[in-house]
Specification:
Helices cover about 35% and strands about 25% of the residues. It is α+β, with helices and mostly antiparallel strands and about 400 residues long. It folds into two domains: about 200 residues, Aminopeptidase, CATH 3.40.630; about 150 residues, Gcn5-related N-acetyltransferase (GNAT) (Aminopeptidase, 3-Layer(aba) Sandwich), CATH 3.40.630. Helix 2 packs antiparallel against helix 9.
């Protein structure tokens, strides 16, 4: 009987680059490719990551690649080339090489962000997060990339934030924070069933009264039902309904609705189909007589739900169907055992979740100096601060402040 030959690794894609980091690890640079042999290893890393980030997990990121992934590369830390059988990933970070963010030839590695991505924490192996982050921040120099990393929407507290601070102190490298803000977070961690049941007791009586009044008006033509879609077939129909609902409102009039972009429409369909197969997405709706009054799309990770999108029927705006949906969704989650957290993923000036949720997630963009140092880091940090100041000034002027 002939001896079995070892499996032949898949061919490396054009533009692939690897660099040895020591300690048995490689820094690997690859394009975003839905057919890549390392997709399963990337998915496994996302499931077991130190900090959950559905936007950088394989199924979501690869669905988004066609619409938003031009110029994006995936930096991976692995124990062997990711095409090799059995490859294990310790870190994954999608980014763009931005050559003149500040109007000067001062390149920076910019963490991938787009209109459907509200969190920028890299995926780090949950069993060895320190080793993973150390290797990730050594990788730019090993790969001859810019020694400056700009990671948008990082948590200012929690496991990753503490890990980053320890690394910066150990490596004697620098970091600067920008656009610090907070967004609403439903934090049910450690609450007893009785405490979950009483969570909404913080709401003022006047707010409760207005909610009841508006719900009564919304139900005057007929009863309003709350429903959650989780099955793949129901999700497929539900996302079409959501896209149509959004297009019927102001975004459709402005030409900025998902329906106005074939690429965004394809992304939403592919993302919901892919995540729906493994229970990674839900659509919640308020319906009356077969008509959707409000709908939301939430991603689901280990113990957290993430509010990706929400829309409402603007012909019913005086009765606040979007507010009613968030209220009803909150009550539904409070009555269940999971999730422990719901992240509003809200922009700094969007306060809907704060009406019901007392928790806050502290967020900031971070400019980080890669290991090995960067003599131009102070210049880059100052330019980014000036960029932030100008953007804040323009925002105040638009609001008339």
């Amino acid at each position: 009987m002939p001896a079995l030959l070892p499996p032949v690794p898949a061919a490396r894609p054009p533009g692939a680059t690897d660099a040895a980091l020591g300690e048995g690890l490689l820094a690997c640079l690859r394009p975003l490719d839905p057919a890549a042999p390392w997709r399963d290893a990337w998915a496994a890393l996302g499931r077991d990551a130190l900090e959950q980030n559905p936007f950088y997990e394989a199924d979501f990121a690869l669905a988004a690649a066609q619409a938003f992934g031009e110029g994006v590369s995936l930096l991976m830390i692995a124990d062997r080339p990711p095409e090799a059988p059995g490859a294990r990933l310790l870190a994954a970070w999608p980014f763009r090489r931005v050559r003149a963010r500040w109007g000067l030839p001062l390149p920076v590695l910019m963490g991938w962000t787009h209109g459907f991505c509200a969190y920028g924490v890299p995926l780090l192996d949950g069993a060895e997060p320190e080793r993973a982050l150390d290797a990730l921040l050594r990788a730019p120099r090993a790969l001859s990339l810019s020694p400056r990393l700009l990671m948008p929407n990082l948590p200012r507290e929690g496991a990753f934030a503490a890990l980053l601070e320890r690394h910066l102190a150990r490596a004697d490298t620098r970091s600067a924070a920008y656009w610090s803000h907070e967004r609403a977070l439903l934090d049910l961690s450690g609450l007893s069933p009785e405490e979950r049941a009483g969570y909404l007791g913080h709401m003022p009586g006047e707010r409760r009264r207005k909610l009841r009044q508006r719900l009564a008006r919304l139900e005057k033509p007929g009863p309003v039902a709350f429903e959650t879609l989780r099955a793949p077939a129901a999700l497929a129909a539900g996302i079409e309904d959501y896209i149509a609902l959004e297009a019927a409102g102001w975004k459709g009039a402005a030409g900025t609705a998902i329906a106005d972009s074939p690429a965004e429409t394809a992304f939403m369909r592919a993302m919901v189909a892919g995540l729906g197969e493994r229970g990674g997405v839900r659509i919640d709706r308020l319906r009356r007589d077969g008509r959707t009054l409000a709908a939301s799309v939430l991603l689901a990770t280990r113990d957290t739900a993430w509010c990706l999108k929400i829309a409402h029927d603007e012909s019913e705006a005086r009765h606040s169907p979007g507010v009613q949906l968030v209220h009803r969704l909150t009550r539904d989650i409070l009555s269940a055992k999971t999730p422990a957290f719901v992240d509003s993923c809200a922009a700094p000036d969007y306060r809907l979740g704060e009406m019901f949720w007392t928790g806050r997630r502290k967020i900031a963009h971070r400019l980080i100096e890669a290991d090995g140092g960067d003599p131009l880091f102070p210049l880059a940090a100052g330019l980014e601060r000036a960029r932030e100041s100008v953007a804040r000034f323009r925002a105040r002027r638009r609001k008339g402040g």
